[in-house]
Amino acid sequence: xxxxxxxIELRAVTWEAPEYEHVKRSADxxxxxxxxxxxxxxxxxxxxxxLLGILLILSGFSITLFGHRKPRVxxxxxxxxxxxxxxxxxxxxxxxxxxxxxxxxxxxxxxxxSQKKLVPYIIIPVEGIPAEYLREVLDYYLPxxxxxxxxxxxxxxxxxx
Length: 161
Known about the structure:
This protein is of the alpha+beta class. 40% of the residues lie in helices and 27% in strands. The protein has a four-stranded antiparallel β-sheet with strand order 1-2-3-4, covered by helices on one side. A three-stranded antiparallel β-sheet has the order 5-6-7, with helices on one face. This is DUF5673 domain-containing protein. It comes from Candidatus Taylorbacteria bacterium RIFCSPLOWO2_12_FULL_43_20.
């Protein structure tokens, strides 16, 4: 094993993070969801689009079930090959750059820009690892470039999704 490969293996970090930030939803949130779902379904049926009505009802059930579900904890890892988030692997060849959004000393969010069109940003919560250490490890593999969460993601978080 050569010295360069040993250095790459030393520049690795592992942590655990929830899939998403769990928000406890009130009964009012569920009432609002179902009032909107039923209203849209009735409107779709009145306009003769029964298939859309069925799709809206199924969507309402899916959102309700997802709202009750607790997030799974994923093991995250950054090493010489790429970034691992649970079962997903993102090689550095498929990534453009990264940005670390800091909240406090122990909580931050890693935003990685991907080359894929369907998943342009990979957002990974980080807890228990100083942002400076994470930045030092990632600087070795990717350039740092300021990124922000897409506005749609922020809107969905604001609405409680």
